[in-house]
Amino acid sequence: MKVGIISFAHMHAVAYANYIIKHPEAELASIWDADENRGQEMAEKFNCQYISDLDAFLATDIDAVVVCSENANHREHVIKAARAKKHVLCEKPIATKVEDAQAMIAACEEEGVLLEIAYPVRFAPGFKQAKELIENGAIGDVVAITGTNHGKMPGGWFIEKELSGGGAATDHIVHIMDIIRWVIKDEVKSIYAEMDTRFYDVDVEDCGIATLELESGIIASIDHSWSRPQTFPTWGDAIIKFVGTKGSLEVDAFKQYALYYNDEAKEITQLPFAEDMDDGLVNDFIACVKAGRTPSITGTDGLRTLEVVKAAHESNEQGQAVFIER
């Protein structure tokens, strides 16, 4: 199975490329990037060809693409790939606008290609086990959920609203929300959110709290921020606590690590030893394409989490709760 990567604008592209190369049934065949220097550098790094023209790239015999361009460019790149009959793994969030996400889903359905959204946290061993425990009634009926996703401020296009669609809320709410939807099988009814810019001199929010009511009546809160210092030993966290009628269950996706004290580089780094969630995501995408089955994380999953992010921004602007209508 031949795979191409559309842009290395998002830092996750490097991890995806590494796992494509390691997969016994896949080949990283080519790269396109609007940044020619970056594209050529990555093609040399991963021993594949760089193609400067996107249409020419999509005209090759690749079977699928991984889209890691800036959030605002996802619509163009996914739809072009779909029209070229290429299956798509798209970095999160699916898009910056709900109507763009809907158009992307429709294009992939029309062309008969798969669209999977990159929510790798589903493949963290702790969350997979938590889902099984909750489904088997280990903590009774879930009544409340709290989640945090704190990270370092990524800089670059992530803090340019036209390209990113927003700051920490756009970047981090989606991961926690996807896990909640996946585990509980429920949708958001209403949301109240407050956001601010407290840590950096940027034009987008770098922290906030979102409180949600699910259609079942479950109350959830998501603490999202870019509050980790740049010297923090890893990029951030993904922690969720499920409170049930029989007990509670807390999962930290990045808890399994060794601390590496590196005097030469003058830094301390967390070295995880759990199964790598990016590896799980890439393996799932390749398996779905080869088997022709529905992706584990669909375009609709991406759309639903985007709806929550957009409602959170709307709530923050209006200073009141926002109801999500579908």
- Net shape: globular
> How large is the radius of gyration?
19 Å
Structural class, by secondary structure, is alpha/beta
Q: What kind of sheet is the major sheet?
A: 7 strands, mixed
Number of helices: 10
- Describe the strand arrangement of the main beta sheet, using strand numbers: 12-11-7-10-9-8-15
| Helicity range | 25-40%
Distance between the termini: 37 Å
What's the total count of β strands?
A: 15
Average pLDDT metric: 97
Instruction: Note the beta-strand portion.
Output: 25-35%
Low-pLDDT stretches? none
SSE string, helices as H and strands as E: EHEHEHEHEHEHEHHEEEEEEEHHE
Could you explain how this protein is built, in words?
This protein has 326 residues and is of the alpha/beta class. 36% of the residues lie in helices and 27% in strands. It has 10 helices and 15 strands. The strands form 3 sheets. It has a 7-stranded mixed sheet. A 6-stranded parallel sheet has the order 3-2-1-4-5-6, sandwiched between helices. The protein has a two-stranded antiparallel sheet with strand order 13-14. Helix 8 (168-184) packs across helix 10 (299-318).
